[in-house]
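Q: I'm writing up a methods section and want to include an example of the input and output format. Could you take the sequence below and give the corresponding predicted structure tokens, formatted cleanly so I can copy it straight into the document?
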Amino acid sequence: MRSPERAGLHEFLALFAIASVGISQPCFDVLGRHAEFFVAHRAGPFELWLVAALIGLALPAIVASIVPLSALLGPRARALGFAAGCIGAAGIATLPLQKRWLEPGPWLAGCLAAAAGVLLWRAYRHFAGLRSLLSLLAGAAPVFAGLFLWATPVRQLREAPEPVAPSSAEIDADTPIVIVLFDELPLVSLLDSGPERAVDAALFPNFARLAEQSTWFANASTVSNATAYAIPALVTGRYPDRRRLPIAADYPETLFHWLAEDYALHVSESFTRLCDAPECRDSQGAGADLAVLFEDVAIVGLHVFLPTALTESLPPVGTQWARFGDSADRVSAGWRSLVVETLNQDRETEFEAFLADMADHPDATLHYLHLNLPHGPFLKLPSGLAYVPDSGPLRRRRFLLGRRDTSLGPQWLGSTALVELAYQRHLLQAVYADRLLGRLLARLEELRKFDAAALFVLADHGVSFRPNRLMRDKRDGGTVLVPLFVKAPGQQTAVVDRRNAETIDVLPTLADLLEAPLPWSVDGTSLLGPAPARPVKRIVQPDEGVVELAWPGDYLSQPLAEKEALFGRDPDVARIFAVGPLSELHGRLVTEFPVVPGRGRAEVDQAQWLRAVDPESGTVPAYLTGAIVEAGAETQATLVIAVNGVIGSSVRTHRSADGLRFAALVPPSLLQPGANRVDVYRVRGAGTRLRLEIVTNESPPAP
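A: Here is the clean output for your methods example:
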């Protein structure tokens, strides 16, 4: 018979093994396969070793500690503690497998997990061989950590790379070089509805102004729908290699490497780490924010283990590679400071710092800015004011959940109305991005560098908006076709070039402008020469390999038609806000219609904020969400939302895990400083018989 001490040791090792195999290893599997997560966090060797130690050793030790802690209360308590730990840890370990094979609901998943845990606990009590096996498996914990560090793509980040020696090529030029790279900006968003498919000068005056002084490559396409591949292709002139990370160690021959000897480097990379010159390391900082890193690791872990229905309340992990929690809807009193201090300021602060630093560099400088706009989370209005984004299940990177059959990237989920709302928010944020472009152009003129500069403005890839379809469908023009404007030094006239251009052509075009040959071979071709015989567009997919689209081909007609159907021909900002099933009511007074009491009750999530609106803070509650409670058997309703007595939006409700919900944008002009009244009405009837049923009075009356 085993002594209590020996039995306790074996039980500790058994729990350690179960947690290591069933919890730590699945986390290592997901994180190890997506090393871009650590690139985005700027994690170095120290952070990776720390992640390995905490997940691989500390987490199992915490789970197993229930045995010695409960033993302090006696043998019986120790036995109960071990039983609870064994059932809980083993049950959690089954959840990823359940999601992959069954997709059960939360209750069924919990029952299956509990049953599996009880089964393992009883087997442990009755089979000595299993007890011995689990004691031995406790030694696998450092093996899993080691495999994470040495046998996954993370190994490329584990050791600090040696600085890349500057290129030996001599560049006899002092032309200012400016490359502005927007993120997730489809060409279709910029175009009007005319037969020429020109840049919409009403919505995007600065892109239109740039088009008048540059060469616009109107059929330019990305070579990848993933930033981790698209940007390396841009700065190397080569099609990306799916085995490599977007870091200098994997891509030693880049634009930065080529220019480092003869040009100053003024570089702002928001996701990649392709510039390893001392100036880049100094300006972009070193190391990760550990609090943000481990918050994101925890969010990823919850997505791995929780049933899908429960992950809808979590911050999505498909909108970005870092700061997942920043995209969550915060209803607490501190949510405005969250937006101002993190979401609102991160990108704008980076942009402002870039503009300010431009004055500190000579003419022979590469000014390279990857601006993570209009990429989500969507929270910007054209004026620059921000609103709090949502945490709904609109976008989800399914491969993080281990679903092989949906491993092609993030996709839109939910109702058509929600996806249309996302499109609306994207366009408004794209208009804001145009505003920032205007400020950059003005800064170049202020510094007297605009005329002399070689200026490239483009996007890494686009995005499409179709319900239950991939956000970045490689065969959709919204994803593939991107803006590409090239202004040669001294150019003042507009040129529209409709050749089959790709983003790998940017670097050879720059080399042509500088009259300096590249010291390595490239796949791209200078856009200054004759159009190449290029019969396809090549798209390098993260999980599908290379996809080829036939050229010539019309990849714009369908996304343009979808955009026009939703927003009308050549919309202005007011028309974008007017999207809704009853847009003809927008802007009208509630008093123009009969108002009667309605069934149910609506709760507006932003009710507290509406009591004290302060535009000077930089944020306004223009994005309103809420729920219809006590609505009986009703499955859908058409609502209008009135702000201070004026109808600002019309929406259709949608079903979610917590009932019947609504979400809408209202024009910020309807909000006033201080207290505001927002009422929600259910619409009954039509035409002259239309009436409004009030279902909420959540915010105080405006003074």
